[in-house]
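Predict structure. Chain length: 257.
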Amino acid sequence: MKNKKIVLLAGKDISTNIIFNAVDKNFGIENVIIEETENRKIYLKRRIKRLGILKVLGQILFQIFVSKPLSFFSEKRKNQIITENQLDISEIPDQKINKVKSVNAKSTIELLKKINPDLIIVNGTRIISKKVLASINCKFINTHAGITPKYRGVHGSYWALVSGDTENSGVTIHFVDEGIDTGNIIAQATIQHTKDDNFSTYPLLQLAEGLKLLTAAIKDFSNDELKLQKEKQMKSLLWYHPTIWEYLYHRITKHVK
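Prediction complete.
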């Protein structure tokens, strides 16, 4: 296996810790670039412009009255998933981290050029601009919590279950382009749910399965053997956070938690 210089470009989240520890253990990570959380007012203003104030209000109510309580009461199940899949949630060593205001900031481009990686693993960032993608001659790979192109955006497994589409409840490893989860597909896999799983645990199941695919993809990349998966013939759809009324409707009528 040829040694490749790997950078993790990510947002601050437990999933970033898990990806770092798994990839660093198997291949080594040269550096981690963490972007700051976007200003809440700017984020909401942009979201309202795109979706309308009523939908965004419903999404906020969902976060407050459903998502956070679900997460709190699902700690036992989340810990079970972490243990069963041997996920390491340890903090990333400070000496490995560089912080930037945004993944699209000038300082990010300068850092990438200085490090000059062979491969960049992306996790939980804003949409990466064309300027950043073109700033350095290397591949960007993302682990997406959904089967693309049908479940682009967020909460792919939840929306697949709502749609009665269990065969497409899963995870995708893909190259990053300037679109939203539209890059060429490297690998995909479905996940298995239990009666104890819900909106807050689906992403962890997807991450656990996605790490297997990501590890295989990095190994193939290191050996110059990485191949693309043929894209399934399906609609390309972009999904957003559910509103509180959407969630309650689907929970009552379809029993999707």
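Summary: Residues 53-73 form the longest helix (21 residues).
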